[in-house]
Amino acid sequence: MEEYVYVDGKKLKRGFTTGTCATAATVAALNMILQQEIEEKVTVKTASGVQVTMDVHKPSFDEQSATAAIQKDGGDDADATHGLLIFSTVTLLPHQTEIEIDGGEGVGRVTEVGLANAVGMAAINPTPRRMIEEHVRDLIGPDCGAKVLIFVPGGEEVAKATYNSRLGILGGISILGTTGIVNPMSEDSWKAAITVELSMLYNKGYRSVVLSPGKYGEAFGMDGLGLPKEQIVNMSNFVGHVLKEVQRIGFTKVLMVGHMGKLVKVASGTMSTHSKDSDGRIDTLIANLALMGAPLEMLQKVNTCLTTDAAATIIKEYGYEGIYQILADKIKAKTERLLKYRQPAVTIDVVLFGTEDGYLASTKSLAEIQEEWS
């Protein structure tokens, strides 16, 4: 792997996710058990298939268990977790075949529904869990089990500077990463990359585009609605910016497909949906539910929710699913108003979905949308 990338003419250092660090610490610990000697460096494969070699910190072992740590290096895109030691203690379980993965000190625990892990589980996301399990299985074979405990001294304090508590992840940081590599990129460069993608689509002859705020929206668009992959562009959190670029480039039709937890912010007129800029999700739900005449008891329950998926359970319980259509219509109105006094005229439609219930609402029927976009 190239250690550096160039962004806006600057040489920036790549880093590694907490998931890669947890995997490497686990492999180092397991190697010490199997070889009965101190491990100073360890080589692992990231989720994207790149081999990396990392220094091992604070190694210790005995015949059946070992502990090792890897220091989190975020490169030049470092976040709050940069510099933390990500530890793994591995214990062999020779009389079983299961591989158990859990979090200890400094690793958050899920307390709200709607996240990648179930309530009660350690906040070790699916991709890091899979990478840890695959590396362990490769080393111990099919006839032995192991217990893996990931812990991060100082993680609980560092987590206060993250978004975890708002998501209902308490007690520490999350072990994250879908590729295993942190590629430094400024927001300006990210926006420029989206503009390039839009321009390429336009130059291929398209005048309509599907915008999604993330991979979940992309997946729902393709798998749930049958939308063509080549017309879906990930706008990330830059809703207003990307819509203005769409219009500037010359597109005349947009379909926004996104999870309720992200697009609900747009219903209140928020056009930059990153958590650092805004978080009026629950407030927007409460305001619109109140306008529908929802009882105070219900509004108070929704007010305690940390995610829109948790609120969805209450909304269903009280029979106020009509809120989703109201929000979809408001998202359409707010985004079309943003572009109203510029040319060309852009028509925007919206599809909302949730984690548990899937499709929630749209500004046109699904049949019409699928016919238009197939």
Automatic annotation (TrEMBL):
GO terms for molecular function: methyltransferase activity. It is an enzyme of class 2 (transferase). It catalyses: Co-precorrin-5B + S-adenosyl-L-methionine = Co-precorrin-6A + S-adenosyl-L-homocysteine. One of its GO terms (biological process) is methylation. The keyword Flavoprotein does not apply. Its EC number is 2.1.1.195. Pathway: Cofactor biosynthesis; adenosylcobalamin biosynthesis; cob(II)yrinate a,c-diamide from sirohydrochlorin (anaerobic route): step 6/10. It comes from the Bacteria. Pfam families: CbiD (PF01888). Keywords: Cobalamin biosynthesis, Methyltransferase, S-adenosyl-L-methionine, Transferase. NCBIfam families: cbiD (TIGR00312). Belongs to the CbiD family. This is Cobalt-precorrin-5B C(1)-methyltransferase. It comes from Streptococcus iners subsp. hyiners.
